[in-house]
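ZP: hey, is the S-adenosylmethionine complex queued? I don't see it on the tracker
AM: it wasn't, my bad. submitting now with these inputs:
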Amino acid sequence: MAVLSQQDNVKNTNGILPSKQMMQMITASWVSQSIYAAAKLGIADFLKDGPQTTEQLANAVGADAPSLYRLMRALASVGIFTEVREGCFGSTPLGECLQTDAPQSLRAMATMCGEEHYQAWGNIVHSIKTSECAFQDLYKTSFFKYLKQNTEAEQIFCEAMTNYATQAHISVAAAYDFSGINKIVDVAGGHGTLISSILKANPAMSGILFDIPEVIEGSKQSIKAAGLENRCELVAGDFFKSVPSGGDAYILSTVIHDWNDENSIAILKNCHEAMVENGKLLIVEMVIPSNNEPFFGKILDLTMLAIHGGLERTKAQYQDLFAAAGFKLTNVFPTKSPLSVIEGVRM
Ligand SMILES: C[S@@+](CC[C@H](N)C(=O)[O-])C[C@H]1O[C@@H](n2cnc3c(N)ncnc32)[C@H](O)[C@@H]1O
């Protein structure tokens, strides 16, 4: 390829030619969409008991064998599967992450990112030019309204969030001192992995898991499986109307980043109104550092723009948001994950 010119002799600090590194970055979505295809077809599940020929796999997942071979060969070239003999593929530790029941499985995440998220990312220029949500522009509805009308997409979204968040939620429960809090309300808590981690780590506490009706329905099983039915009440509703009252802490984990400032302030004001006099607000998000360092939140920020019209924020932006909703930001507690707990009290 004739892309190399005067840069031929210039290498990055990692020893790679800039043009080569740039080409890898440009084509990274080819790899992620190949991972999506394998996740959607459930290939990793069929390799759990040992290697399979392409024909066996094609029969199992309903695919064209020669095309499936090309997918498997491409994914083996980046370490996701391995060709153990010609036309016969086995799994690898990377490939095992795509098994449906692997601990913290990423199958649902790969499926979600490869479908509507990918389409919306294709419209990212619209967002950059206008500040508008690329998903809304493309689908003529918001992401959460779309999920309400598409049961399969809604299930994949909840599964992706639950699986991805489990470790992060354990790290949140470990990083923040919840002593002194009797009743916590997990606002838009999804299937309840965070409130489960918190209640398990703090046996004297009780809580309320709050989300939209469809999600609360799906959370019944996980709260029961965690043995928390007696300490965790399930309440369905819309946080733009109200949130359950009487909690002495309101926790919102990866919720506020879905929304622009106007909507975020409306949600936080409802928490302000619902909490006890000296209640605490706990926002769990990635706080964007003010430097050039790589930080996952900086890329996630663009996904928030494209999918929800939301954003990841700096500490100063959280301070302003809190103040606009009647809170004072009191502390930021880092966790072992990229998430921090941003604590506020009523002003
Ligand atoms: C990104 S998920 C975060 C879920 C969970 N807190 C976690 O950390 O995994 C955002 C959540 O907001 C919920 N949600 C969206 N709109 C809502 C509304 N109007 N009222 C209540 N919950 C809502 C969604 O159902 C979803 O569970």
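AM: back. Residues 151-175 form the longest helix (25 residues).
ZP: great, adding it to the tracker
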